[in-house]
Request: fold
Amino acid sequence: MIDCSNPIKSNILSALFLKKFKELAVKRVYVIRPVLEFEACGFDVTSGLLDVFVQPLKLNDRTTSVT
Reply:
């Protein structure tokens, strides 16, 4: 029977491997400058897209609530 009180990843056989892989990735991959630059660009793009889509929704909300 599966224990639902713990995260699902703790119920798989490769949980220890997954944990070690994640630790290694954080140490070796996510600190490399091009990766950090790419991640920063992603944040900029996401922020820009949110601005593009949220502003019209805010304007639409104001116009519909006035009438």
Notes: The chain has a mean pLDDT of 80.
